[in-house]
Specification:
Organism: Plesiocystis pacifica SIR-1
Low-confidence stretches: none
Keywords: DNA-binding
Protein name: DNA-binding response regulator
Number of domains: 2
Distance between the termini: 49 Å
CATH class of the largest domain: Mainly Alpha
Radius of gyration: 19 Å
Strand order of the largest sheet: 1-2
GO biological process, one term: phosphorelay signal transduction system
Strand content: 5-15%
CATH topology of the largest domain: 434 Repressor (Amino-terminal Domain)
Helix content: 55-70%
Number of helices: 7
Shape: elongated
GO molecular function: DNA binding; DNA-binding transcription factor activity
């Protein structure tokens, strides 16, 4: 009582620097956004927002923290991890992969970090660039 959310976050950070925090505000200001970033807020939502925006934000923050929300997310994490392992074993950069697959460096990076799900076509191109069978990208799935 008697304190705003950012003051509370500052107190929480004294005990736990890694906890995921989503800030929601009806009165956003540049100062509050800057303070939130400096306090390590995971996401900054301006009200009003839709239920789907909130779900997407929670899922994104959970993925960044390594928390698997759904089995599908777990699959994306596995695929991304396997792609990164194969790529690094072959000493290929994302730029090399981009040239070999005709996919953007940004998309490849998002796939590796499980921030974007890869299409079958993209997985086919990636598997070919890595000289592996597409099924090898799925690990134990």
């Amino acid at each position: 009582p008697g304190q705003d959310g950012l003051e509370l976050l500052g107190r929480i950070r004294k005990f736990d620097k890694d906890i995921a925090v989503i800030t929601m505000t009806a009165t956003p200001t540049l100062e509050s956004a800057t303070d939130a970033i400096n306090l390590g807020v995971s996401a900054y939502l301006q009200q009003p927002f839709s239920g789907s925006e909130m779900r997407e934000t929670v899922a994104r923050v959970a993925r960044k923290k390594g928390i698997v929300v759904r089995r599908e997310d777990e699959l994306h994490l596995t695929i991304g991890k396997r792609i990164r392992e194969f790529r690094r074993a072959r000493e290929l950069t994302l730029k090399h992969m981009s040239r070999r697959t005709n996919l953007s460096v940004s998309l490849l990076s998002q796939i590796e970090r499980a921030e974007s799900s890869a299409s079958v076509s993209s997985l086919y191109k990636i598997a070919n660039a890595l000289d592996v069978r597409i099924s090898e990208l799925f690990g134990d799935y």
